Amino acid sequence: QVQVVESGGGLVQPGGSLRLSCAASGSIFNRYTMGWYRQTPAKQRELVAAITSAGATKYSDSVKGRFTISRDNAKNTVYLQMNSLKPEDTAVYYCNAAPHLGATNLVLGNWGQGTQVTVSS
């Protein structure tokens, strides 16, 4: 099964940018849609962006136009470029895999440690 390690989070000022990386292990990486999720104490974990093995993408309304998801299948890595960051983007960001775009049966039953993104002045 795919295993993932998230990185790239940190403290950034409003309007700033970060690029998150999700490094996946396993030879089946290229079969899966990959997604970025985020969670705060006030909200359930939500899907932020997803990308299929063929490169089709989907974004939540709150990040559309600001975030870009991409993947490098040769490196087994998915990225989330986050621009024009807002304090509301503060959360722990996680990645996971799914059979297809829109699927809810995620591959990883156990979420990783994620990476903390804090947007504050």
Work out the helicity level. Answer: under 10%
| Mean pLDDT across all amino acids | 93
Count of helical regions: 0
Taken in chain order, the helices and strands follow as EEEEEEEEEE
What would you call the structural class? Answer: mainly beta
Radius of gyration, whole Å: 13 Å
Strand portion? over 45%
- With strands numbered from the N-terminus, the spatial order across the biggest sheet is 2-10-9-4-5-6
> Low-confidence spans: pLDDT under 50, at least 5 residues?
none
The tally of beta strands, per DSSP, is: 10
Major sheet size, sense and barrel closure: 6 strands, mixed
Rounded to the nearest angstrom, the distance between the terminal CA atoms is 40 Å
| Overall shape | globular
Characterization of this structure:
The chain is mainly beta. It contains no helices and 10 strands. The model has no long low-confidence stretch (mean pLDDT 93). It starts with a strand and ends with a strand.
